[in-house]
Amino acid sequence: MATKAYRNQKTSRKSTHVANSLSNLPHLRIQGSARKSLGNVGFEEKHDTPTESPKEDIADKWRDIHGSSDWNNLLDPLNRLLRREIVKYGEFSQATYDAFDFDSLSEYCGSCKYNRHKLFEKLGLDKHGYNVSKYIYAMSHVEVPRWLEKSRVLENIWSKDSNWMGYVAVSDEKESKRIGRRDIVIAWRGTMAPSEWYEDLQRKLNPIGPHGEAKVEHGFLSIYTSKSDATRYNKSSASEQVMGEVKRLVQFYKEKGEEVSLTITGHSLGGALALLNAYEAASALPGLPISVMSFGAPRVGNIAFRDELHQKGVKILRVVVKQDLVPRMPGIVLNEGLQRFDDITGSLEWVYHHVGVELKVDVRSSPYLKHGFNLLGFHSVETYLHLVDGFHCSGSTFRSEARRDLALVNKACDMLVDELKIPHFWYQSANKGLERNAHGRWVKPKRDSEDIPSPIGEGNTLEPEMQNNLERLEALYGI
């Protein structure tokens, strides 16, 4: 989030016009050709079946699953063990949306709804066997779109500068035994809609790294590295917060003699931040196995950025929905496709380039999804996870053994066929967050004290009793 004090760059009229035009697309659907009935797909029968297969021991296979051989012979057909791990990390990414307070009338807009000890329990993700150790906050010094703006209605908000951008989590003893190592996970939040950050793209590439040849999109880099002493939550940048925690965890578990890995995940903008995070982690912690599993991520940097990530040993799996427009940006025209003309164009230091191995899934493969144009639906994390769960190999039909709950697809979009009778955009707080008080009036309830972000920034002095209470809240909230 950026206040006027930080907004030192103006967006062009052209990019603003494009962004405004795109903002109407998420709700636009163009009906395709007539669809066949679901027939014997068996949706109702799935209600009485588990949503997941039993967990399997992957202790001797985890390096292959995390790309040690660049996922050769694991993607087409999609290995069942890899599929389950992709869905797991995708759910960690989805959690950054489900727990985010989007309510512009809330004094906590832009924060996480729950403290770190409750996050996975509240979202039903404690089944994965990970514990959150740290929350990450971010801001930006560049002109940013609506997704980073705070409510203009309330003055007394928890933070006027920062947003909750994700978390660091660690596998517990049982899960570590199953997966063969202690896995540190970083999950980065993306945007509410792709059109909301489009106007911040297509600008100059900024250098990253010691040599200056690798360059990345300046807006992404600003969100990752911005900080200010005038803020409460970003006296240190998102980069400094996350790297401080990762280094602490790696040292702690290595001193215990454990094998450690780092897995970074994110959707949309979160996928871009995941690459910046992986680049920095690989530079600071050489030899640490690092993999990225991103969903619907845009291009981030140039070909030198790609090459340096490869040289550092970072393994990157990009899950892409064929119909999703976001992975085509930035650089819709000026991208890696020009490499075929490298004799003319040279080294392509000035164009964007995707990184890693791609797993592409297709909306048309699912009999449960509408096939009309739906920008928001194509880009939704839940659409991605539904398609991964149903993917067997290119050209095959949707897996009949797919177990993931179909209703999840419509949490924040309208992608499921009407025959399934699942409401669209159904995921919300009961009564949109209002509760009856003792007098029978509908009011916004106050958050539990343990779920309130601490209002005091670093460098403040407090009375001992208040300081103890603050430290308790900070320990719970992970800041």
Automatic annotation (TrEMBL):
It is found in: Plastid, Chloroplast. Residues 185-332 form the Fungal lipase-type domain. SUPFAM superfamilies: alpha/beta-Hydrolases. GO terms for molecular function: galactolipase activity; phospholipase A1 activity. Keywords: Chloroplast, Hydrolase, Lipid degradation, Lipid metabolism, Plastid, Transit peptide. Residues 1-26, 442-463 are annotated as: Disordered. GO terms for cellular component: chloroplast. The keyword Plastid applies. It comes from the Eukaryota. GO terms for biological process: lipid catabolic process. Belongs to the AB hydrolase superfamily. Lipase family. This is Fungal lipase-type domain-containing protein. It comes from Escallonia rubra.
